[in-house]
Amino acid sequence: MKSPALGTPSLLRAINDRAALRVLLERGPLTRPEIGELTGLSKPTAFQLLARLQEAGLVVSDGIRAGQPGRTAEVYRINPAAAYVAAMDVTPDRIAVQVADITGTIVGESVLPTPRRPASTLVERLRAALDGAGSPGPLRRVVIGVQGAINPASGRLEYATAEDMPGWHIPDLLPTLSDALGAAVDVENDVNLVALAEQAYGAAAGCCDFVLLWADEGVGAALMIGGRLHRGATGGAGEVGYMPAPRPRRRPLRQPRLPGAGRRHHGGRRRAAARSRRTRAARAHHPAPPGAAVRRRGQPGPRRRSGPGTRHRP
């Protein structure tokens, strides 16, 4: 579909239509004067706008609002059957699907267990999961959350192994899935989808710059800069689990030492060495007389008498 040129009447009509649909989604059924007041449009412009949206099947009449001063007013609301979308969460063990109408109401869901070595093809598994959800009408778009990221340069799924995501590593992944499923397909990193949800409805509502860190079976992150997802050149800007980390230097283990233990140990060895040197020096200068008994280490020596005036040699 060709986009309207800048500054043309078709562009202004598209902007007004989008504004009216947004207030109807956020505020619910509204009258024509209420739509004009909330969008800042004049009554003739609001009248023409509602006529276009009704003709396109996006807006339907919701009855008459009575009981108020003045003329009765016709109420308009979004047609929930105007379009259906599907969200798919793909993990190594299962494919979970939820189908919603244009108002965001869940109208169908299913869970398809998937073995690690499936016999069916990727397209067959996705189609079976969508059929199990039972969409009331044709799908306009399918968004698939995966544990990985699409490389915009090659169009392939990266940052995911073939064991965890069998059948996903094929060229031209998005065109292949779109043709097979009959709807526009987006494949997005699951943590990036969580960041979009937090920005719209959660803790990051109204925040344009933040980082979401996801810690589960794996570690991932999503970067929101200026209100838009930052994916990086290869699509894996948030794949912190694949970042190279320096290895710690290995050092030999050291035994714990008590205070003073080394000093006592070395001191005892020094005293023993000094006694040995003194003994050898004394034997060298005062050799034992012939026939003297030599006491070996471990043998009992001669008994010495103890008495007054007796001195023992150290």
Pick out its properties.
disordered C terminus; Arc Repressor Mutant, subunit A; alpha+beta; 23% strand; 2 domains; 7 helices
The CATH architecture assignment of the largest domain turns out to be 2-Layer Sandwich
| Share in β-strands | 15-25%
* Topology-level CATH name of the largest domain: Nucleotidyltransferase, domain 5
The N- and C-terminal alpha carbons lie at a distance of 112 Å
Shape: elongated
Q: CATH H level of the largest domain: which superfamily?
A: ATPase, nucleotide binding domain
Broad CATH class of the largest domain: Alpha Beta
E-strand count: 13
Strand order of the largest sheet: 6-5-4-7-10
Order of helices and strands: HEHHEEEEEHEEEHEHEEEH
Notes on the structure:
Helices cover 31% and strands 23% of the residues. The chain is of the alpha+beta class and 314 residues long. Strands 6-5-4-7-10 form a five-stranded mixed beta sheet. A three-stranded antiparallel beta sheet has the order 1-3-2. A hairpin with a 3-residue loop joins strand 11 and strand 12. It is elongated and about 135 Å long. Residues 310-314 have low confidence and may be disordered.
SSE order and pairing:
Elements: H1 9-27, E1 30-31, H2 32-39, H3 43-55, E2 59-65, E3 73-78, E4 84-90, E5 94-101, E6 106-113, H4 122-133, E7 139-146, E8 149-150, E9 157-158, H5 173-181, E10 184-189, H6 190-201, E11 210-215, E12 219-225, E13 228-229, H7 261-285
Parallel strand pairs: 4-7, 7-10
Antiparallel strand pairs: 1-3, 2-3, 4-5, 5-6, 8-9, 11-12, 12-13
In short:
By secondary structure, the chain is α+β, with helices and mostly antiparallel strands. The protein is 31% helix and 23% strand. The protein has seven helices and 13 strands.
